[in-house]
Each structure stands twice: as C-alpha cells, then as structure tokens.
Amino acid sequence: MDFSLNRNQKAIKEMSRRFARDVIAPVAEEFERTGKHPYDILSQMGDLGMMGIPFPKTYGGGGGDWVSFNLCVEELSRVDMLPGVILDVTVTGAAQELFLYGTEEQKQRWLIPIVRGKTLGAIGLTEPDAGSDASSIRTSAVLDGDEWIINGSKQFITNTGLKNNSIVIVAAKTRRKSDGKETICTIIVPTDSPGYKVGQKYEKLGMRASSTHELFFDDCRVPRDCLLGEIEKGFSQRLSSLQAGRIAMGAIATGLAQACFDQAISFVKKNGKSQTSLFDSQTIPFNLADIAMRIELSRNMYLKAAWLKDQGENHTLEAHFAKLYATETATKIAAEVLKIFSPHGYLEQYPIARFFRQAKLNEIVEGTSEMQRLIIARELLF
Amino acid sequence: MNFSMSKEQVDILDAAASFAKGEFDPDLIEECERKCKFPVEIWKKACELGYIGMCIPEKYGGQELGLLESSLVFETFCRQDSGTGLALALSDLGSEIILRYGNEEQKKKYLPSICGGKGVISLAYLEKGQENGMGFFETTATKKGDGYVINGTKIFVSNITQSGPVIVLCRLTEGSRAGENAAFLIKKDLKGLASSLFGDRVGMRMVPVGNLAFMDVLVPDECLLGDGRDGQSQLNILLNEMNVKAAATGTGIAQGAFDMALAYARRREQFGRKIGSFEAIRGKLTDMLIRIELSRLMTYKAAWDLDGNSGNSVPAAMAKKVAAETAMEVARDSLHIFGGYGYIVDYRIERFYRDASMIDIIGLPGHSHESFFADQAIGKM
Predict the structure, then answer these.
(1) Which pLDDT score, from 0 to 100, does residue B278 have?
(2) Closest by Cα among A108, A88, A87 to A98
(3) A103 secondary structure, DSSP code
(4) Is residue A374 exposed (0-12), middle (13-18) or buried (19+ Cβ within 10 Å)?
(5) Higher-confidence residue: B135 or B370?
(6) Tens digits of per-residue pLDDT, A355-380?
(7) What is the DSSP code (8-state) at residue A130?
(8) Where are the alpha helices (DSSP H) in B200-230?
(9) Residues 181..200 of B with a Cβ closer than 8 Å to A: which?
C-alpha cells in the first residue's frame, strides 16, 4: 500500500492548482453570470496539456495516468465546477472512446486535436425519453451506400454549440447486416455534417456557462467510416466510457465540496474565532470537522477507483461508489456551508451561492444516484 | 385535543387555494422572479380579499383571525408558488408588534395600510457579526430633546424598497434603560437614512431586501413603540411571528415541491413503466409525505400556542427549524425525481429548491437560531 503521489502526479496536481487559482478563480463568477463559454480558459487548459493527461504521447498526450487526470479535475473544480465538467466530458467521453475504439485514421483526425486541446468533443446519448433508460434511445442510423443517415434528437448534450466542438459521438439504433437484429452503435458525427442542428441552450439552476443543448438529426448524413468501433458494441463501448466519467464526477464533486469548505474556513477564521473558544462554540467547528472528513473520504474513493483503472483492474464498484458518495455528500456540504454563512451566503456575490446552485447537478448527470445504486447492487447480487 | 379544522378554517384554506390557482399568473411571476420584483398586482388582490394582515383586528381593517388561519393561507400560497407565497407572507411582518406595543395613533396610522394594500412594513433587526447571538444590538438610540438619535447599520432588511415604515430594533444608550432594547417605528424618508438594495440572490427574489444605514437619524419620541421598557419581549414577539411565518412557508414550499414531484413520477416513463412505480422513488415520495406532515403539525401547534397567548415561543422556534430543514430536503429530493429536467428553469421545481433554502433566514439565520432556541427551550447554563 502506498498512498503517496508520484512525482508526475504531484506535478500535475500543483500545475492544475496554480492554474485554477491564478486563471480560473478571478473570472469564475463572471462566466457563471454571463453564461458565456470560457473559450480562453479552455484554450489555456489545452495548451497546458490537461486534455491529454491520460493519453499516450503518440497521440499528443502527456503519457500520464488516470490518477493524475482526476487530480487535475479536482483541482479545477475547487475553484469552479465548469472547467472540471468540460474536461470530464471531453476526456472520459469523446477522447476516451476514440482512443479505445477508434481506427488509426479516426484517431489521427479527431482524437489528436482533442487531446491537444484544440477542439472539444461531445457524446450524444441522452434523449427526451431516454434518460436513465439509456438503451431505449430512438435515434436511428441507417446505412445508405457510403453514408449513415441519422434521424432523431438528443437532450442535454454538453460541449455542443461551440465554435470548436468538432464532433458528437452519437449513440443510435441500427440493424445488423448479418441478421437484421436491432443494436446500438456509436457514430462520430462531425458538427458540420448536413442535417445536424444544435437546438436551444437551456436556462438552468446553475452551471449557466456550460454549453448544453438539444441536438436534432434530420436526415443527417455522415461518411460510412464514421462508425466508431464495432456496430453491435456501441452500447457496451459507451458504458465503459461512462464508467471513467463516473470517477471524474467523484473528483468534480470532491473539488466542489472542497471549494465550499475553503469558503467556510476562511469565513469562520475571519470572524475571530480563537482556539480557546472551541469550548464556547462547537456547532460550527464540529460541522467543519465532519465536512473535512467527508471530503477526504470522497477524495480517497475516487483516487482508489482511478488507481484501479490505471492498474487495469476491475473497478466497477469503486467507480460507482466514488460518484455516488462524492456527489450526494457535496450537495449536503454545500447546504451546510450555506447555513454557516447565513444570512450572507444567499447573495450571489458570495461564491457559496454559486456552489450551492451547482452542486445538485452532480447527483443527476452521468447516471443519477439511483442508477449508481442499481449498478452497484447488480454487481453485489448477480 | 382536537386535530380537526373548523368549518371556517376549511373554508379559508379552500378560498386561499382558489385564489392562488387563479391569480398567481405564471408569466407575471416569471418576470418578478427574474427581475427581483415584488409582485405588487397579486399582493394588492390578496389585500383586497383580506389575506394580508389577517390577524389585525377588524377595526383596523383586518380579519381578526389567528396565526393558525394566517399560516393556513401562507402555506397554501407557497404550495402554489414558492416565491410569490414568500413575498405575500412577509408583507405583513411586524403587524403583531404594532398591535401589542403601538399606541392608538400608531395603530390607526399603520395597521390599515398593511391590510389595505397601501404599505408594506420593513423589519430591521439583523446586524453584521450577530453570529454570536442576538442579544446585543450595535444600532443605538440616544435620547436627544424630543426624540432619539439612531446610529448603526441593519442588514437583510425586508421590504426595504416598499413605501411603508420600518421597525428598527435598537439598544438604548442613556437613562435608566441604558443597555436595553427598544423598537422604533419610523418612516423611511428621514434624513440620514441610506438604503442599499441587494442584487442577485439564490432565492426569495420577489422580496426586496437590503441594508439600512442610520447616520444620526433623528426620530421624534412618538416613534418609540411601547414605552422603552419592553425591548426583550418585543424582540421575542417579532421572532415568534417570523418563526411561525418561516414554518408555514417552509411547509407550503415542501408540499408544493412534493406535488410537482408526484405528478412527474406519475407521468414519466423509463424502462417501460412509470418511474413512480419503482420502489426507490416510492420510498422517497412517502418519506417526503411523512416529513411534510410532521412539519405541518409542528407549524399548526406553534401557531395555536401563540394564538392562545400562552407566550410559549418554544414550539415556534421548533417549527421554524423543522420546516426549514423539511423544505430543503423535500425540495432537493423533488428536484432529483425530475432528473435532468429538475435542473431546467422552465420546469419550476428548481425555484422551489432555491426558495426552500431561504426559509433559514426568516427570523434568526443559521446557527444563531439554534443558539436562541436552546436558551429558550433548556435555558442557559
């Protein structure tokens, strides 16, 4: 057992922390308020190699590991969740699927620019009537000569509607040539494809700068070789990339909880609570103690899941524990810190207001808490 | 013991529900929410029908009903719409203290405008640095000639932009009552009074809130509420009123959130069935039902205690805490049942979640409420 970070992991963590503090922190409130996607910040993150951390140098990556990647995600999320979420979707979603299942040509064309931070990728799975029940999607893909024709719509897809969003990897129903059986495949849809339309951006409780849209596919045509991986393995491919996303959600939620805690600690210290008064005033200090403990538990869980992934070991339970625990805990912590700040924290000039509004989302995206429990229970019982 | 509502109470409840369904116009509400505007049109209609200042005696324009009836109304309003309900519920705060301590002239002057839709009272009691408790106000009132000079800053003053007067809690600095608290009822257009309106906030956006700074504000003697002897009980009365309001609105918000989650669970299908048929969701919904009912029972008991003039403020303090926590947890779980849609403004549930988080600041905010409650319930040791 060795709980220490190696030199590379430490370096990435430090670099991410500095970047978050110096570049993201000063403008985090602003992009939440304006709802504008922070192109410049993403570009700098790309230049620093953040999108490439877990990918080999041959594809423009840093040759690092998933522990390092998740440490980076947590550090960014400690200042604001948005860059962490964008990084998660880009890396564990689009980039990872390309890396694991793409042809060499697909990797050269689509993966490398994402890894280098020049473009952002998206994954299109959720539909208006297919949320938790992901395999009930209705978007269809029919092979017509040299092209796939895609019809349908997707809901809540992050990283879309952006100038540098290159592709959406769409999960669609299709029929196998061999026996005509229906299956789910994943197809790379370049965003300049005919018949691809970006719908409305939603007005949301928080994360206002996240570029999350409805997508419409109206006889959308893409070349035949945009199929990603094997035609009948689309869903299982998608599930495996979702699992990496769950670890990252653990890191994001840990970062958010830490952000709330950092606010609380400095607020409490500023109000002149000296050490001796722990005998007079315990409610808040004891609450802080609980919060710090739960954050550390969240952190250790996502790190273990990431480490197991790096070892090539089965980590289904750990990934889902990480997501479930960190996200539910972070929502509660945000509410507790809001109460510590009361009445001031409700004003948007205090970061805790923003963190409170953002926190709840984590329990819903990348598989709701119910789905996490379902998957864990399945592992345990069947 | 009698747990049933009287016919009058049932009628009031039904009428309030009809009013809310009919008058809480969604477009108007959306605009008020977005722009942090008080819903004047709805409030005026509520005043016309007697929902505002219900506890005020008939001779001053009220309905002469109790806190229990008032709680029924505001719980129902919040059930229909959290933000509108809160704005209406907090628009007659302070009527109790005027009733108990105001002289006839003050009562005649201010009470009818509360009920009649002409003036909303502001309450100025919170100050910065009160994390240590409410006992010691730093806003001072010093006797000077025919009046008092008030200095200090009050924060989170409700209804600050409304034209009605403001009730300010101060600490007297001189004379035999030095060090004790006193309440003043003053008009907002006095010299030396400066207000700053708060901007964007998480919830309670339709209630205008801000800070009020007093710089050598001279107020005549007749602005004193009572005779300067009743500071502590005045504070308790204000807190009682606010705690019951918090309890009623919190319960209503929780109920409204639950209603929405239940309706959604009944129509949303995944995995070939209604999500409301899954045990996990059913368990969540029934847990919510229990908590809402507990919160409601506590609210009604607290209101009933105060209506009976027992002066027992402990149930009100309990009810506030229970309702604040219930509203938060029920709204959070209700939002969750909506899945991704719960996060979208159009689906309305997120507003209930944001407003639920604000119940905490009605009365004493955060942990200072718990401190006060412990002192009341089990005594300082």
Answers:
(1) 98
(2) A108
(3) -
(4) middle
(5) B370
(6) 999 999 999 999 999 999 999 999 99
(7) B
(8) none
(9) 198-200
Place of tokens 């410049």: A40
Helix (H) or strand (E) holding A381: helix A369-381
pLDDT at B166: 94
pLDDT in tens, B64-112: 999 999 999 999 999 999 999 999 999 998 888 999 999 999 999 999 9
- A133/B201 touch (CB, cutoff 8 Å), yes or no: no
The model's confidence at residue A272, banded by pLDDT at 50, 70 and 90, is low
Q: Report the half-sphere exposure of B252 (CA within 13 A, side-chain side).
A: 32
**């932009």: which residue's tokens?**
B161
In the predicted model, is pLDDT for residue A284 greater than 70? yes
Entry field: residues in chain B: 381
Q: How far off is chain B from A345, nearest CA to CA, in Å?
A: 9
Alpha helices in chain B (DSSP H): 7-23, 26-35, 40-48, 67-80, 82-89, 95-101, 104-115, 231-267, 279-307, 314-337, 349-356, 366-378
Does the structure's ipTM exceed the value 0.85?
yes
- Interatomic CA distance for residues B13 and B75, integer angstroms: 9
- Look at A347 and B350 and tell me if their CB atoms are within 8 Å: no
Buried b / exposed e over A287-315, threshold 16 CB at 10 Å, is bbeebbebbeebbebbbbbbbbbbeeeeb
- Tell whether B31 lies on the interface with A, counting CB pairs under 8 A: no
Alpha-carbon distance B45 to nearest alpha carbon in chain A (angstroms):
29
CB A203 within 8 A of CB A170: no
pLDDT in tens, B29-61: 999 999 999 999 999 999 999 999 999 999 999
Tokens of B257: 């959130």
Mean pLDDT across chain A, nearest whole number?
Answer: 95
* Strand-strand pairing, B193-197 and B140-144: unpaired
Nearest to B291 by CA among B264, B262, B336, B328: B328
> A331 and chain B: CB distance < 8 Å anywhere?
yes
The CA–CA distances, whole Å, from A95 to A59, A167, A188, B60 equal 11, 10, 11, 71
Are A137 and B276 in contact by the 8 Å Cβ rule? The answer is no
The alpha-carbon gap from A185 to the nearest alpha carbon of chain B, in Å, equals: 20
Query: Pairing relation of β-strands A147-158 and A140-144?
Result: antiparallel
Q: For A180-227, what is each residue's pLDDT tens digit?
A: 899 999 999 999 999 999 998 899 999 999 999 999 999 999 999 999
- Run of H or E including A69: helix A66-77
Would you give the distance in Å from CA B316 to the centre of its chain? 13
The span from the CA of B366 to the CA of B318, in Å, is 14
CA R_g for chain B:
21
User: And the tokens for A282?
Assistant: 């315990």
The pLDDT value given to residue A270: 84
Alpha-carbon span A194 to A221, nearest angstrom: 6
User: At residue A32, does pLDDT exceed 60?
Assistant: yes
Structure tokens at B328: 């938060």
Instruction: Say what the pLDDT of residue A280 is.
Output: 76
**pLDDT top residue among B176 and B196:** B196
Summarize the confidence of residues B306-334 as an average pLDDT.
Answer: 93
**Would you place residue B259 in the very low, low, confident or very high pLDDT band (cuts 50, 70, 90)?**
very high
Q: Could A364 and B281 be called an inter-chain contact, meaning their C-beta atoms sit closer than 8 Å?
A: no
A333 phi, psi to nearest 5 deg: -60, -40
Q: Which residues of B touch A125 (CB under 8 A)?
A: none
> Would you give the DSSP letter of residue B381?
-
Entry pTM: 0.96
Q: Give one DSSP letter per residue of B70-108, joined into a string.
A: HHHHHHHHHHH-HHHHHHHHGGGTTHHHHHHH--HHHHH
Q: Does B279 touch chain A (CB under 8 A)?
A: no
